[in-house]
């Protein structure tokens, strides 16, 4: 329909005025993502054409499907897959399981994936997906049936050169193996490159499991060099002790940094002299949660963000640093290992307080970067060794950080807006060159 026709229709049919345009994606997280996009787009004086083309996801799939429980009952579940831009190549992004997973949440996370891939120079647009469920209440068999059905439901929109899922919260190598097997069964042959984050014996890459946490440390090293902070002498507090937080804690502990606080959803642990991360990992291996660990002071899960230290690493959930606790943070630097951990209001407070923020699209980009390495290796049918993976990861993250600081200097802005600006410039240039079909 031509633009003029649309205007006429709106004017002549008042009922259509009540249909809110673009509200499909509404969620608190999506507002944070669009606030960040708007700030960078305004600074860049981005052409309205690209604001429209990049401001909302290109494609979304919502599926309702049944899963048979062990009891014989049937549970109805809702799953999502959102592809933010199709301009840069296939789309890439994880899928998560959780009680709050929604279209709005996936849309925000898909948009951030676009910026992350563009900032890192990876040939992907952003995507994200998930299933709204409570994974801790599901048995192994129920989780497997859920994952296989979700994979089957996504077949119309995914493919090794269309959209390549990966792990996110509450999903990991096990789910990727089920996902890959389901897709392969449907295609009639093994398609390793349909997901990344797989077990190494199934076409996964060495170093993927640790990539996000390790990447956080590589970025942190580069940041500390830039701001003259001695990382090995810094006190660090980490919220979240899962795939990302525990690996970051282990790597920081290994290089001699003082990790003074960690938390998971069960508890926070604090020791101003530094925690014994190796002992804590052994505790978690035996007890599955931090709570009860005897050799540290126990606090609430969110309290670790307010511990006195130089570096805070939110590595758990979104929207953890808010206007409520941002005034109480006692650090010099926040490095966002989680996606979207800082609300728009908190971002302003941190900026005003002079606390530096390393944005998620850079800080946790190690995961998607090594996912890209895995996909390349799968396509090549050739495996790299761990050193190769780590060196390339370090190089790519450092180059991305240099792009961010260059843009921050050029545009006179903070690192988040600079990172998004680099990404938006890249994607909008690609969109301009491709033009509009037909
Ligand atoms: P995970 O499920 O492995 O771990 C999450 C951790 O957070 C767990 O330790 C959990 O107990 C803890 N947690 C949950 N609620 C909490 C609360 N209220 N307070 C304190 N801790 C709490 O997930 P993950 O893969 O480590 O992902 C963490 C974050 O990193 C997410 O935002 C995710 O999107 C992001 N991320 C992950 C990857 C990856 O490769 N896994 C890549 C990029 C970004």
* Physical arrangement of strands within the biggest beta sheet: 9-8-7-6-10-11-12
How many individual β-strands? 12
What amount of the residues lies in strands? 15-25%
* Sheet having the most strands: 7 strands, mixed
Helical residue percent band:
40-55%
Query: What is the SS-derived class?
Result: alpha/beta
Q: State the separation between the terminal residues, measured CA to CA.
A: 13 Å
Secondary structure tally, helices: 15
Topology:
Blueprint: H1 3-12, H2 14-17, H3 28-44, H4 48-55, E1 59-68, E2 74-83, E3 91-98, H5 103-120, E4 125-132, H6 140-154, E5 163-167, H7 173-187, H8 208-227, E6 235-239, H9 243-254, E7 258-263, E8 268-270, H10 277-287, E9 297-299, E10 311-314, E11 333-335, H11 344-353, E12 356-358, H12 360-363, H13 366-380, H14 386-411, H15 415-434
Parallel strand pairs: 3-4, 3-5, 6-7, 6-10, 10-11, 11-12
Antiparallel strand pairs: 1-2, 2-4, 7-8, 8-9
Helix pairs in contact: 3-5, 3-15, 5-15, 6-7, 8-9, 8-13, 8-14, 13-14, 14-15
The structure holds nicotinamide-adenine-dinucleotide.
Nicotinamide-adenine-dinucleotide (NAD) binds next to α9.
